[in-house]
Design a protein that fits this description.
The radius of gyration is 33 Å and the shape is rod-shaped. The protein folds into 2 domains: 102 residues, Orthogonal Bundle (Rna Polymerase Sigma Factor, Chain: A), CATH 1.10.1740; 78 residues, Winged helix-like DNA-binding domain superfamily/Winged helix DNA-binding domain (Arc Repressor Mutant, subunit A), CATH 1.10.10. Strands 1-2 form a two-stranded antiparallel sheet. The chain is mainly α and 195 residues long. The protein starts with a helix and ends with a helix. GO terms for molecular function: DNA binding; sigma factor activity. InterPro entries: RNA_pol_sigma-70-like, RNA_pol_sigma-70_dom, RNA_pol_sigma70_bacteroid, RNA_pol_sigma70_r2, RNA_pol_sigma70_r4_t2, RNA_pol_sigma_r2, RNA_pol_sigma_r3/r4-like, WH-like_DNA-bd_sf. One of its GO terms (biological process) is DNA-templated transcription initiation. This is RNA polymerase sigma-70 factor. Keywords: Sigma factor, Transcription, Transcription regulation.
């Protein structure tokens, strides 16, 4: 019987000295292994200590015929993999947040005497101004489509007109918008509707 098996067997009696010997025997190797996988010595120390804590708590459930070294390193490897998976999720979230922030910054305007206005807000204001210049039914159809996000059939039902008339009103409104809006704002208006 090797030294680690003897330590493991005597742990059954909860002899702290035997557990301490097992800890001293495996901790340095396990710490190096975890540090190699995680590239973080503090986190590696924490995980190795957690593995030994689990060993202490679950010693009554363990099979005495199993190799202690394999058991410890398997638990440690799995915990390291869980940490790495968590890091990947966190990195993806941070990347997404950075992308959102960059997108917000890209779609920001500092017009009107240094006031901070998003392109969406600027577009909304411009579209409301355009609607006020349109004929009544054209303005209603345009508002329902581009501000409220209604589908053409819904607009036809609301206005009690045919789908082809809704198309004509929207076409007339888009022609006016194309003439009066800044090209970037016009693209912001029509591109989401294509999706």
């Amino acid at each position: 019987m090797n030294k680690s098996s003897q330590c493991f067997d005597s742990m059954e009696k909860r002899q702290y000295r035997s557990f301490e010997e097992l800890f001293r025997l495996y901790f340095p190797r396990m710490q190096r292994y975890a540090c190699y996988l995680l590239r973080d010595s503090d986190e590696a120390d924490d995980l190795v200590q957690d593995v030994f804590l689990q060993l202490w708590r679950d010693q009554d459930l363990l099979d005495r015929d199993k190799n202690v070294s394999s058991y410890l390193f398997t638990i440690l490897r799995n915990r390291c993999l869980n940490v790495l998976k968590k890091r990947i999720v966190e990195d993806r979230y941070r990347l997404h947040e950075t992308s959102v922030r960059a997108d917000e910054l890209y779609h920001t305007s500092f017009e009107k005497e240094g006031e901070f206005i998003s392109f969406d807000e600027l577009l909304y204001q411009e579209v409301l101004g355009l609607i006020s210049e349109m004929p009544e039914k054209c303005g209603i159809a345009f508002r329902l489509k581009w501000i409220e996000g209604k589908k053409i059939r819904e607009i036809a039902e609301i206005m009690d007109i045919s789908v082809s008339m809704v198309d004509k009103h929207l076409s007339r409104g888009l022609t006016l918008a194309k003439r009066k809006l800044d090209p970037a704002l016009f693209l912001l208006l029509v591109i989401p509707s294509v999706q």
